[in-house]
Every structure is written in C-alpha cells, then in structure tokens.
C-alpha cells in the first residue's frame, strides 16, 4: 500500500476486488486444501486488501469499494460448495463494510455476475459431462457467441 499511496498522493478513490476461480466438484470430494485455496483466493484476498486500503480510501473523503462476487454466492450451484461459500462471504463482508465504513464516506458495493465466457471458463464449454442445458443455464446467451 505504500507504493499505491505514493502514486495516488496518499489517498485512493476506488478499490476493485476482482479475483476468483476454482474447480467444480461435489462437496464430499472437496479436500481441506481445495477449501483453503478457494477461501484464500475468493474471499481472504478481498478481506485483507480492503483492510489495507481503508486508510487511503478514508483520506479521499469519497472512497469506493466494488467487490466481484458470483451468483454462486447467492444461490445453490451444483459442485460449487467451496466456491459458493467463499463468494457468499464476499457478499456478507461487503454488506458489513458498507455499514461500518459509511461514517467515513466509503461506499461499498458488491456485484454478483454469472459465469462469463472467458478463457478461464473454457473448461465448462469443453466438459462433455455438462449438458447443453446446464451450460445454457450457467452461461446464458454467451453460448451463442461461441465460435464454431
């Protein structure tokens, strides 16, 4: 944060917590390492970076945090117990920060998109076990943009 502080003259107007990823597997197959890795990537990074950015956001007098969660953090999704739990934690954390940091003029919001058809999500398109119906539900109209 020292480098960020020096670049932005001691204050920060916005922090975007945009990180995520993981594998799909039934809850019974999730190892302790899978769980820890998912929580570290999908939640803990957001938690700690927000804490570190707080002093700079407060000094701006109008700080903003936007955290990217997932629809998996809102509703049940097959094979995403560890990922969905972590993204649900991002949503709750964002709500809590919004309440706690409003007095410091820091707005906190959370966005929960569905799966986005990127190279990172390409495995879903290539997975023969995922039916077209599941893919259409997960990726919606993005499947229509898939090159043939």
TrEMBL record:
Coiled coil: none
Protein origin, superkingdom: Eukaryota
PANTHER family the record matches: NADP-DEPENDENT MANNITOL DEHYDROGENASE (PTHR42898:SF6), TROPINONE REDUCTASE (PTHR42898)
Gene3D superfamilies, sorted: NAD(P)-binding Rossmann-like Domain (3.40.50.720)
SUPFAM superfamilies per record: NAD(P)-binding Rossmann-fold domains (SSF51735)
InterPro entries with a match to the protein in the record: NAD(P)-bd_dom_sf, Sc_DH/Rdtase_CS, SDR_fam, TR
GO molecular-function terms, A-Z: oxidoreductase activity
Keywords for this protein: NADP, Oxidoreductase
Protein name: Uncharacterized protein
Annotated source species: Rhynchospora breviuscula
